[in-house]
Amino acid sequence: MRPEELANDYAGTIPVIRHATEWIASNGSKAEYVCCIYATAPFILPEDILKGLETLKEHNADYAFTVTRYPYPIQRAIKVSDEQRISMFSPDMFNVRSQDLEESWHDAGQFYWGSSQAWIDEKPIFSTKSYSIELLRERVQDIDTPEDWRVAEWLFKAMEFKNECLSAS
Q1: Which of 77-81, 115-119, 132-136, 159-163 has the lowest mean pLDDT?
Q2: Which of 62, 75, 123, 159 has the fewest CB atoms found within 10 Å of its own CB?
């Protein structure tokens, strides 16, 4: 059981996994690597998890986790004020063709493999000692809202349909 301060909606991943890692060690076991898998990631596959562990070991990394591409260049992001007025985050990118902008990635939020020591030392996950496991956008859906749930259902149906088509051919 987690202590109360780590059992709420605001508890961070690193302190929670640090606690679990230390608990395992204090109860007679030792884990060299620990994986945090999010329950809000319905399309995670066993081979992704294994690839994460292999990547962590191969690079002697602190962490390995899934990433996916943003569907549109983040350099074209805009802000909307309370008055519904628009401004660009990067106005200098307005005239750059989207295909010439640097590709951007984000955390897919499916799992984080880490060395036990990285978790215990509370090393930052987003650092040069972390490695990425690339996933297609169509396999990434974090579920935090009812809208996220509906999108996950649509994606699931699309995946089922794709598998049916592949089986029929």
Answers
A1: 159-163
A2: 159
Q: In the chain, at which residue ranges do the beta strands (DSSP E only) sit?
A: 33-37, 63-69, 78-80, 86-88, 105-115, 130-134
**26-38 mean pLDDT:** 94
Model pLDDT for residues 86-128, shown as the tens digit of each residue: 999 999 999 999 999 999 999 999 999 999 999 999 999 999 9
Domain boundaries, the chain: 4-168
Distance CA 138, CA 131 (A): 21
**CB 34 within 8 Å of CB 17:** yes
Coil vs helix vs strand at 36: strand
pTM of the model: 0.85
Half-sphere exposure of 43 (CA within 13 A, CB side): 24
Contact predicate 129/60, CB 8 Å: no
